[in-house]
Design brief:
Elements: H1 2-8, H2 38-44, H3 51-76, H4 80-106, H5 113-126, H6 131-144, E1 159-160, H7 161-166, H8 169-178, H9 181-194, H10 206-230, H11 232-258, H12 273-280, E2 283-285, H13 288-293, H14 300-305, H15 311-320, H16 322-325, E3 329-331, H17 332-335, E4 343-345, E5 350-352, H18 356-368
């Protein structure tokens, strides 16, 4: 295990070639990769799903979520000021619901594929996300995370310093707007869950496209039922608060899991799956209550190394295996620094802010002179 610690501490230019852990059977290891390394055996110990743990998590997530909607209905008769905090709390439970949906997409929540598909489809309606279509896109994210040459699917738009400097004025303005926190964590989540998830990708296979249409029907039916119970104005207000809370928190979690100090990005010819998992995905060490609501997704380095580990085994894996304890944690307070990261500097192998552009331009002018 000492060698693993030494390997992790090397600079971003030193790489070890290992086989990837596949998310699904269609994600094959790279050709010419060496024999299966020790970490494959390590993660295999925690990949067994537990029906009991899964059912308990469903109960302590979905039952309170439904109960909160009931409480919101009853509280409206007294005061909107009682309903609003309940809607925010329901949004927190919706984040946890999405993690269950997410695990079902990886086939890790239940041992049974059919159970994963059924629960994934149901939680997909609750989270406004089509199960099969999302699973298809998310598989691409796991296969390309940290690969500079394969950006663009299931990730946050990230340009290198050179790409930004060479971009048109319109593209630079669009990039700055997209990376603005008010847009990224405010408008973008609503656009993602209310609009983008309603339209399938033209590149998606037939089943994945039909899952979008089926989810749209499910969302519409659920909305119609709640409108009948709550009334149009009350339902729309409460649903938007729930979605805004869950969406903003979810986008932030995803953002900080791949945009943090020391993150790994590399070109395809140097990209390595295990390094991308352990150095390109953060160990987001959250307070216990936030860890619970976020379904242990803060152990993202382990999740990317082995998506087949269910969320309820991730903390146990982190505590038991020295390999994962070599990954430096990102604390809640330290994670706020991620707000300042805007571009990837390939020369320095790190994320930088826009102020760094002045230094780059100055160096370029000096070199020309």
């Amino acid at each position: 295990m000492t060698n693993l610690r030494d390997w992790f501490s090397t600079s971003c230019h030193l790489r070890k070639t290992v086989n990837p852990v596949t998310m699904d059977s269609h994600l094959a290891p790279r050709e010419g990769a060496p024999a299966t390394p020790a970490w494959r055996q390590i993660v295999a110990r925690y990949q067994q799903a537990s029906a009991g743990r899964a059912m308990w998590q469903l109960g302590n997530t979905l039952v309170p979520y439904v109960a909160l909607w009931c409480l919101m209905y009853w509280s409206l008769a007294l005061s909107w000021w009682l309903a609003l905090p309940l809607a925010i709390l329901a949004g927190a439970f919706l984040v946890r619901t999405f993690i269950i949906f997410h695990d079902c997409g990886h086939g890790s929540f239940f041992q049974s594929a059919a159970a994963n598909h059924v629960v994934g489809t149901i939680t997909g309606v609750l989270t406004f996300t089509p199960f099969y279509h999302w699973r298809w896109e998310h598989a691409l994210h796991h296969a390309t995370a940290g690969d500079l040459d394969r950006r663009g699917t299931g990730d946050v738009w990230t340009l290198t310093v050179q790409e930004y400097l060479e971009a048109s004025r319109w593209k630079r303005c669009a990039y700055r707007l997209a990376r603005n926190p008010a847009v990224l964590f405010g408008l973008a989540p609503l656009f993602l869950f209310l609009i983008k998830q309603r339209v399938p990708s033209l590149k998606a296979p037939a089943r994945e496209r039909y899952s979008v249409y089926g989810t749209n029907l499910g969302v519409g039916a659920l909305a119609a039922g709640l409108i009948w119970i709550f009334g149009l104005e009350a339902y729309l207000t409460l649903q938007l608060i729930v979605l805004m809370t869950a969406g903003s928190a979810g986008v932030w979690l995803f953002y900080v899991q791949h945009q943090f100090e020391g993150v790994y990005w590399e070109r395809s010819n140097e990209w390595d799956y295990a390094t991308a998992a352990l150095k390109g995905s953060s160990f987001y060490k959250l307070p216990k209550v936030l860890q619970w609501f976020s379904g242990n997704i803060g152990f993202h380095h382990i999740h990317h190394l082995s998506p087949r580990i269910p969320n309820y085994h991730l903390e146990k894996c982190q505590r038991a295996e020295p390999l994962f304890q070599t990954v430096p944690p990102v604390t809640l307070f330290a994670s706020f620094k991620s707000f300042t990261y805007r571009l990837w500097d390939e020369q320095r192998c790190r994320l930088v802010g826009y102020r760094h552009l002045k230094e780059v331009r100055r160096q370029t002018q000096t070199a020309r002179c």
